[in-house]
């Protein structure tokens, strides 16, 4: 008879987590705290007790890898069957993929940047619990970058615009909008990064930035994108919790932290909101089957959930809603139309295509924007349609002036006068700098020494740093190939799409 071995008692999760995050930490003996953590004092944030940080998820390493592996298995099964069954033919239309081109060029590189910076926080934050939370998020973000690249690469075989996204992210004009935002966050201190990315980006605006892409995918037959969306969702809720935990922890540690954090919220709300203009244009104009309008999403995800739900709670700590939130609300009837006009005018230099909204789409826009669309924007599209019916297509030849902060061409209008371009001017060290809004001007004047260094794509072209003086020179330097850019109607993507569907009238089965 063999004797049963006494079973090892498994510790409750709470204790295991405490052992992992607290008891594995040690006090340095031969270097000082300031040498070990040199970056946590210069921003002026005071932390008295790092043990006050509680991570409500209590995720351990073994559990983490088990969950993530299961999610990966499911995702890659979807990708395999999609590739084998020519699933791309079941999309609503090839023009839908313009939204996904924007995603891989603009968003996926930010996932990778987040991976890098959370790895830095995992080394340099003083508390063991937030260090471990940052480590998990760093691994998540790497996985997001990888799953997005694998998912979207399925389309690279058949469609333009997907081949050089990483180079484009570093070079192409509209991609410097997201890139410069993240560079701004990564070159800030560790606490500002937490408020910028974990709180303002992941908590305040994540639903507004990601849900439109994922519901756009589900409405337009893009199973793979929907699947990576689902597989990132549980990570995303952890990241949102980290953002909320970070801000509450810092606010509770010392009253002197409150005004510093308020300044960061004011800055980062506006930075992230301005970047979301690209998402607004995508939602209202790039989806053949639109999900909901930008305005509706902004009201639901931001005005109701954040202004109505979150900020009343933060008021307890003395935190007020972001400084320029009124301007964002005042713009909600205009933002998407103004930004898509820019993209439409300049898509000859973009790695996606654009087209004038059809009459049916125009009716949808009119129903979503009863106060502005028919009066202000529809006449412009009607004119484009007339010009195109006569064989023309308007592209704006010439380079636009960019905002020194958000880097979007100056095409936004005054919140109280849609006929006047909003244009702000600041002087710094004898030079003049231009910004697009009260928000961007405020951000500039708060840290001019940072923003005077901005890599503005238009200035760089004029200074001769972008491949040469002509449009073909610049496009070659961008990595844009024939068929990536310009008008969608008649493009290689549109022609292949028509051919595939003509030769195969019932392609992949409907889901
Ligand atoms: Fe992510
Ligand atoms: Zn701006």
Structural category is mainly alpha
Distance between the termini: 59 Å
> Could you state the order of secondary-structure elements as H and E?
HHHHHHHHHHHHHHHHHEEEEHHHHH
Q: Roughly what fraction of the amino acids lie in strands?
A: under 5%
Proportion of helical residues: 55-70%
Q: How many strand units?
A: 4
Summed over residues and divided by their number, the pLDDT gives a mean of: 93
How many independent structural domains? 1
Radius of gyration: 24 Å
Spans of 5+ residues with little confidence (pLDDT < 50)? none
The CATH architecture? Orthogonal Bundle
* Tally of individual helices: 22
Bound molecules: fe (iii) ion, zinc ion
Main sheet overview? 2 strands, antiparallel
CATH superfamily: Ribonucleotide Reductase, subunit A
Q: Kindly report the CATH topology.
A: Ribonucleotide Reductase, subunit A
| CATH C-level category | Mainly Alpha
What sort of overall outline do the alpha carbons produce when their principal axes are compared?
Answer: globular
């Amino acid at each position: 008879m063999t004797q049963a071995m006494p079973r090892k008692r498994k510790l409750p999760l709470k204790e295991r987590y405490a052992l992992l995050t607290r008891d594995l930490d040690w006090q340095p003996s031969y270097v000082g705290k300031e040498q070990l953590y040199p970056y946590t004092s210069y921003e002026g944030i005071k932390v008295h007790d790092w043990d006050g940080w509680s991570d409500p998820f209590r995720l351990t390493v073994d559990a983490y890898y088990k969950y993530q592996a299961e999610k990966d298995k499911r995702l890659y099964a979807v990708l395999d069957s999609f590739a084998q069954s020519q699933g791309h033919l079941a999309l609503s239309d090839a023009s839908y993929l313009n939204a996904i081109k924007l995603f891989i060029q603009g968003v996926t590189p930010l996932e990778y940047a987040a991976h890098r910076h959370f790895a830095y926080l995992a080394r340099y934050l003083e508390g063991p619990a937030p260090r471990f939370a940052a480590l998990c998020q760093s691994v998540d973000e790497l996985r997001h970058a990888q799953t997005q690249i694998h998912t979207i690469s399925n389309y690279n075989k058949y469609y333009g615009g997907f081949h050089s996204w990483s180079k484009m992210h570093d070079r192409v004009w509209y991609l410097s909008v997201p890139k410069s935002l993240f560079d701004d966050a990564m070159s800030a201190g560790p606490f500002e990064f937490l408020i910028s990315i974990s709180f303002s980006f992941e908590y305040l605006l994540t639903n507004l930035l990601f849900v439109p892409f994922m519901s756009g995918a589900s409405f337009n037959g893009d199973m793979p994108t929907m699947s990576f969306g689902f597989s990132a969702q549980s990570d995303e809720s952890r990241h949102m919790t980290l953002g909320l935990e970070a801000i509450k922890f810092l606010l509770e540690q010392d009253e002197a932290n409150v005004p510093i954090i308020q300044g960061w919220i004011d800055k980062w709300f506006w930075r992230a909101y301005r970047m979301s203009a690209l998402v607004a244009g995508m939602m209202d104009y790039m989806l053949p089957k639109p999900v909901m309008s930008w305005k509706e999403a902004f009201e639901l995800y931001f005005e109701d959930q954040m202004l109505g739900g979150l900020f009343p709670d933060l008021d307890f700590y003395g935190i007020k809603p972001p400084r320029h939130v009124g301007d964002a609300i005042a713009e909600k009837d205009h933002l998407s139309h103004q930004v898509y006009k820019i993209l439409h005018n300049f898509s000859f230099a973009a790695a996606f295509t654009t087209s004038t909204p059809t009459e049916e789409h125009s009716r949808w826009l009119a129903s979503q924007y009863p106060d502005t669309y028919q009066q202000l924007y529809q006449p412009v599209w009607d004119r484009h349609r007339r010009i195109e019916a006569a064989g023309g297509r308007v592209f704006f030849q010439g380079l636009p002036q960019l905002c020194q902060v958000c880097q979007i061409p100056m095409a936004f209008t005054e919140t109280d006068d849609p006929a006047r371009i909003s244009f702000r001017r600041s002087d710094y060290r004898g030079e003049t700098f231009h910004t697009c809004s009260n928000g961007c001007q405020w951000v500039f004047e708060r840290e001019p020494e940072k923003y005077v260094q901005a890599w503005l794509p238009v200035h760089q072209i004029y200074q001769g740093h972008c491949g040469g003086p002509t449009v073909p020179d610049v496009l070659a330097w961008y990595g844009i190939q024939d068929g990536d850019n310009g008008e969608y109607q008649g493009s290689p993507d549109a022609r292949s799409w028509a051919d595939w569907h003509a030769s195969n009238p019932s392609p992949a089965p409907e889901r």
